[in-house]
Here is the input.
Amino acid sequence: MVVPTRAPRPLAFALVSPLRRCTRTACGQPAVATLTYVYAESTAVLGPLATYAEPHCYDLCSRHSSRLTAPLGWEVVRLELAEPAGPTPDDLEALADAVREAARPIMAAPAGDLGRLSQGRRGHLRVLQPPTS
Here is the structure.
């Protein structure tokens, strides 16, 4: 008897989100704050979302971070949660300038510099050989 073999199923990488989620059970909301405990001082510190996920820190969504309470005798320190800043007019202008610069045609070198140009050209950069005297 021949048993049909199934093709191996592809790994489901789409199930893992690069977005950090709230660590509370059954909550899938995006994390906006990080909770850290300082056991020596009986303090819970709630601050902006940490740059990296740490093993002894807890990422919380806005709902759970606003409703956070600490055990009896503990103090909660709430650091200001800054709203993510959007692009400023200066950022947009710098981006537009960079795009214009990248789209600018390459100018020919002056006649006196033709002997100094090297053939090792990459992108918009040129390697100039030192002048020989």
